[in-house]
Design a protein that fits this description.
The complex is a heterodimer of chains A (478) and B (228).
Chain A (H helix, E strand, L loop, with lengths): L9 E8 L19 H14 L11 E6 L5 E6 L3 E7 L13 E8 L4 E3 L4 E3 L5 E4 L7 E6 L4 E14 L23 E17 L9 E4 L5 E5 L3 E6 L7 E5 L12 E6 L6 E6 L4 E5 L11 E3 L12 H5 L3 E4 L5 E5 L3 E6 L8 E4 L8 H6 L9 E3 L5 E5 L4 E6 L5 E5 L15 E3 L8 E3 L9 E6 L5 E6 L2 E7 L3
Parallel strand pairs in A: 28-29
Antiparallel strand pairs in A: 1-32, 2-3, 3-4, 4-5, 6-7, 8-9, 9-10, 10-11, 12-13, 13-14, 14-15, 16-17, 17-18, 18-19, 20-21, 21-22, 22-23, 24-25, 25-26, 26-27, 30-31, 31-32
Chain B lengths: L1 H20 L8 H29 L41 H17 L3 H11 L14 H15 L9 H19 L26 H13 L2
Helix pairs in contact in B: 1-2, 1-6, 3-4
Classes of the chains: A mainly beta (478), B mainly alpha (228).
Pfam families (chain B): IER (PF05760)
GO biological process, one term (chain B): cell motility
Family (chain B): Belongs to the IER family.
Chain lengths: 478, 228
């Protein structure tokens, strides 16, 4: 990450902003920004000019970000149920500087608001998670889920169309049969590239509670979906049947003490998966041991430090995200204040604990008041598992270099992300005298939060979702 | 007392949040409800023990043999190590239960009492009989065992150190209408089953007298979690 001989920095690659129109909420006005300074200024002017109401609507809030396996595509989901896919522009000789920009590739409405008549409950359209399937042919496939329903989408390109039908004319109207005097063979003609997204499978009616995770298995045939109390195993081709592999629902719901907060398959061993709980523990299960994995194979738990107990201990120790490293040797968990790296061979404590925003420990009461304490921050690994990243408040995000033990706080904001310029590390002043360039804890903006981040699987390119803005940064090479 | 006020505020806030999360789009979130009830319960416990401590301080004849360290927390009302029972199990209560409170809390209460009282077994038995075994209404019914306890208290005072968790009747009575008012203010009209304990209720001699008025509110709200 930042371990090179010279200080390298992240520069803005792409910035996109969601600004929905309340009257036509399904229309996504999405802009991408090119790297050059002039363009950026122009774009902002243009944007401000076009937008009458500067406030975005809540449907515009980005709720998930995910690179595909090659890193060439980046999928984002939002609270309005839309999926926007960005594609990395390929290097071209005419535009040597254009390498690496991400442009909008496809946009589609994945989920619509629904109503559960039996429970008299509205089902939100918000996209909770997106997971790509490994690419097996020219088309790309992804799974997207809201609270209840998982959908398999196929994203494919079409750049040719058939022309020269015998019974139809060019506009598609039927021709008068008496006028057809000769038969011809239809031919494929090149046309403007069209990207189509079509729903291939809909996996519904298997979750009573809210789905928080989906994870594709390394066998490429199955995937799991987890809600608050159960984990189901699906075959990607079969929608009318799923197998329940974990069920922690107590017979008497009044005895409920914990819920499942996240679950993920091991990246290489198709029989192993982990799930985290609201108590701050992680269970590793082996599907070979039994069909219903009620008994875990490994149980990862760090003894609680009694000196730091408070009203909110249970909330802040709840794990909001769990991610295996690419190697499969480690896993990372995120709780409210810290991110921990666990060695799968050691259950008693994490091998690393990184404080994300420890200065908030004294502010837990007000964070409870304004509901921020319930925020679910995600975390991600870089391609070589040497660095990790997670979000914070005030549009800050944190990166930790595992080898050098260095960490950095960066800010994703329109003002600070001038193209070409490197992101400057930010520092939060934690008591005492505030130095220049430091920001005091009290002036942090808790409405600006970075919950979702993604790291390119091979390169140092990161995607950061800041409310309704998506920033893509690249590690500067020269 | 500041600790008490803080705990009270957090309790009120939690109940408010629980009520509002029912109207949330997409339905009640199980994880959030669980977390809210956890906070609510630790606030309640702290509130109650702060109350007891305050009463102890007001009656200097009562020596405090095991002062609860939670009563002197830092600003954020952090609970220090000493309040964790000796077996290492945190004092944090089980969530979203009211009836289970009885089974869960009783041994724990007994354990706490064991350190202070000469009759831990009897106290434990007593707790069980006088706690919320009948659900919502139990808290409103003065238990007969309380009378028995009065005798025990007298015995304790003569032979052993008095149980510090048994507050003087007058003060105990004064405490819970106060909480009831707070909760009533926030929820009057919203819940038809509000805290109905009259201020003139017979003095409760239970180990946790002041939690009674709150429990009807809690149980109504908390039960909703189960209604999936």
């Amino acid at each position: 990450m930042f371990s090179g001989p010279r200080q390298r920095g992240l520069r803005l690659l792409t910035h996109a902003e969601w600004c929905g129109v309340p009257s036509e909420a399904s229309v996504l006005l999405c802009k991408t920004v090119s790297m050059r300074a002039g363009d950026l200024a122009q774009w902002f002017r243009c944007l401000l000019h076009k937008r009458k109401d500067p406030s975005w609507i809540s449907a515009d809030i980005i709720s998930t970000v995910e690179f595909n396996y090659s890193g060439d595509l980046l999928a984002t989901g939002d609270k309005g149920g839309r999926v926007v896919i960005f594609q990395r522009e390929q290097e071209s000789k005419s535009r040597p500087h254009s390498r690496g920009e991400y442009n909008v590739y496809s946009t589609f409405q994945s989920h619509e608001p629904e109503f559960d008549y039996l429970k008299s409950l509205e089902i939100e359209e918000k996209i909770n998670k997106i997971r790509w399937l490994p690419q097996q042919n020219a088309a790309h496939f992804l799974l997207s889920t809201n609270d209840k329903t998982i959908k398999l989408w196929k994203i494919s390109e079409r750049d040719k169309r058939a022309e020269g039908y015998n019974l139809k004319d060019e506009d598609g109207r039927l021709r008068d049969p008496f006028r057809i005097t000769a038969l011809r063979v239809p031919i494929l003609k090149p046309m403007d590239l069209m990207v189509e997204a079509s729903p291939r499978r809909i996996f519904a009616n298997a979750h009573t509670y809210h789905i928080n995770s989906i994870s594709v298995n390394s066998d490429h045939e199955t995937y799991l979906s987890a809600d608050d109390l159960r984990i189901n195993l699906w075959h990607l081709e079969i929608t009318d049947r799923s197998f329940n592999i974990v069920d922690i629902k107590p017979a008497n719901m009044e005895e409920l003490t914990e819920v499942i907060t996240a679950a993920e398959f091991h990246p290489h061993q198709c029989n192993v998966f982990v799930y985290s709980s609201s108590k701050g523990t992680i269970r590793l299960c082996d599907m070979r041991s039994s069909a219903l994995c009620d008994r875990h194979s490994k149980f990862f738990e760090e003894p609680e430090d009694p000196s730091s107990r408070s009203f909110f201990s249970e909330i802040i120790s709840s794990i909001s995200d769990v991610k295996f490293s690419h190697s499969g040797r480690y896993m990372m968990t995120r709780d409210y204040l810290s991110v921990k790296v666990w060695d799968l061979n050691m259950e008693s404590r994490p091998v690393e604990t990184h404080q994300v925003h420890e200065y908030l420990r004294s502010k837990l009461c007000s964070l409870y008041e304004n509901d921020c304490i319930f925020d679910k921050f995600e975390c991600c690994w870089n391609g070589s598992d040497s660095a990790i990243m997670t979000g914070s408040y005030n549009n800050f995000f944190r990166m930790f270099d595992r080898n050098t033990r260095r960490d950095v706080t960066l800010e994703a904001s329109r003002e600070n992300s001038k193209p070409r310029a490197s992101l400057k590390p930010r520092k939060v002043c934690t008591g005492g005298k505030r130095k220049k360039d430091e920001i005091s804890v009290d002036s942090l903006d808790f409405n600006k939060k970075i919950l979702h981040t993604a790291w390119h699987p091979m390169e140092n390119i990161i995607a950061v979702a800041a409310t309704n803005n998506l920033y893509i940064f690249q590690d500067k090479i020269n | 007392m500041e600790v008490q006020k803080e705990a009270q505020r957090i309790m009120t806030l939690s109940v408010w949040k629980m009520y509002h999360s029912r109207m949330q789009r997409g339905g009640l979130r199980l994880h959030r409800s669980l977390q809210l009830s956890l906070v609510m319960r630790s606030a309640r416990e702290l509130y109650l023990s702060a109350k007891v401590e305050a009463l102890d301080l007001e009656t200097p004849s009562t020596p405090t043999r095991c002062p609860d360290p939670r009563l002197h927390p830092p600003r954020e009302a952090e609970v220090p190590a000493a309040c964790v029972p000796p077996d290492g199990e945190p004092l944090s209560p089980e969530p979203m239960d009211t009836q289970e409170d009885e089974e869960e809390a009783s041994p724990r209460a007994a354990e706490t009492l064991a350190r202070c009282s000469a009759h831990p077994a009897r106290v434990g038995r007593k707790r069980r009989s006088s706690s919320l075994s009948n659900g919502v209404d139990a808290g409103l019914v003065p238990s007969k065992k309380a009378r028995l306890e009065e005798k025990e208290e007298a015995e304790d005072a003569s032979s052993e150190v008095p149980d510090r968790l048994l507050p003087p009747p007058a003060q105990a009575e004064g405490a819970f209408p106060n909480l009831a008012r707070v909760l009533q203010r926030s929820f009057s009209g919203l819940l038809n089953r509000g805290p109905t304990a009259p201020p003139t209720a017979p003095p409760a001699r239970d180990a946790k007298p002041v939690c009674r008025p709150a429990d009807p509110v809690l149980s109504v709200l908390v039960r909703a979690v189960v209604a999936f």
